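re the bet — no i am not wrong, look at it urself. input seq straight from the record:
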Amino acid sequence: MNSKGKYITCIDVGTGSGRTIILDLDGNQISVSQREWLPKADPRYTGSQDFDTVEAWQLLRETLNESFKKANIDPSQVAAVTATSMREGIVLYNKNKDVIWACPNADARATDEAVEMIKKDLARPIYKIGGDWLSLISPPRLWWIRNHMPEVYDEIVHMNMLSDWVLFKLSGELVTDPSIGSSSGIFNLSRRKWSTELTELANLPKDIYAPVFECGTVIGEVTKEAAAETGLLEGTPVVTGGADTQLAMVGVGAIRPDMYTVCGGTFWQTTVVADKLLIDPEFRLRTLCHVVPGQWIIEGIGFYHGFTMRWFREGFCQEEKRQAEAEGSDAYALMEKLAATIPPGSNGVQAIFSNVMNAKSWRHTTPSLVGVDILAPDKTGKAACIRAIEESAAYVTRGHMDILIKQTGVVPQEVTFTGGSSKGFLWPQIIADVLGTQINIPVVKESTSLGAVVCVLMAIGECNSWNEAVERVVRWDRSVEPDLETHKFYNEAYQLWLKVYEYMLPIADDNILPSLWRAPGL
């Protein structure tokens, strides 16, 4: 450890942006710098999303340099640097360790390959060992590259995940960790390492997978080249962080069995911690390795909840954006203030975006806002649409929570809500009312960075246990209690939403209008 190190640098590769956060050893945020990006579709391939590592690294370099300026600290004061990212995205390298192909989490080009795997009866054994269906994982993608880009396939010598790629850019070391590596679908979850059984079963490359190090391990140092590009000091320890959701859970202290958390960002993850490996026998949710050894998480994914709200802000809330800029406030806060004038149920408006997760048949209908009364714009206009979007995310969360309770046999008395979506006052209340459960909100809403701090504290010897590190950094903002009468109302409203969603699925299933997202193989 750098004896002068008082700060931790965390680089976060998200679905919609990349950023650098500088925090002190107690988890206090000193600065943050962010650059937005969007996945890039390859027009040649339906459902494709590419991850441009050249552009991303340039933007991440900008955030690193900017965050140091904002923090007004010297790079010599950084104790260690770590990284986190969205799950499932993979990076492939040639023998010279040059990146030759990369994709983000929602890449869905491998439809034919997923269908072929299902026909060969590979999907179920992959799920039972690796914890996830073929929707977002690597085996169909590797088959797709073999079928459509054989020249790239023949060059593959190394593979790891997106957060691992950041560590490689910093240290020159190709590694992975169980929390992010297990999102590839090629892990043996029980053993927390790559599965030779799965690579043989699915006829995947055998020796390309990066060495596995547990989260919170020093795996190298910042190289001279990386120091020149980023402003970090050469020789600064580089530490394995982990997957964004699992780190967010650590950042709110979810490191004990049966702790329920909702991580609300671009995607929403409704999760529970388990101290034994639980695989959904009905192939709906998915299981991954947790950051803490000997633990796993089971989760349901709400698709693009954060993007949906961002879309509505950009498309319909120019007035709120202008007001926020003039006042120095947040457009989302003004949107929630507007939505709060609408009663539960949004006066009949239904937001139809993400479906409840069903991994083996993960279908979403065409994005829609329905149920408006064109003769009552004051009741079913912009304000009602905002509330309906927030309610729809809560309904999806409810669907996932019901499955998790059945899996674990544990009904939560409280649920933690973290991530950017937890910053407001209305969304937490809607979730509490829909679930009928107390919602706890941490002081640091972007808790993924706090989870990264915990990993670094373990790596550099500042803390001797995960519990000690969590207790050092996690602090609570407030709790939100459900209104029992509103909860009764939402029990019926949720059933109505499910029925509306089911009726609208054929619009996308029959290709009348495009789906929000459709898993490969469907």
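see?? The two ends are 50 Å apart (CA to CA). told u. also The mean pLDDT is 96. so pay up
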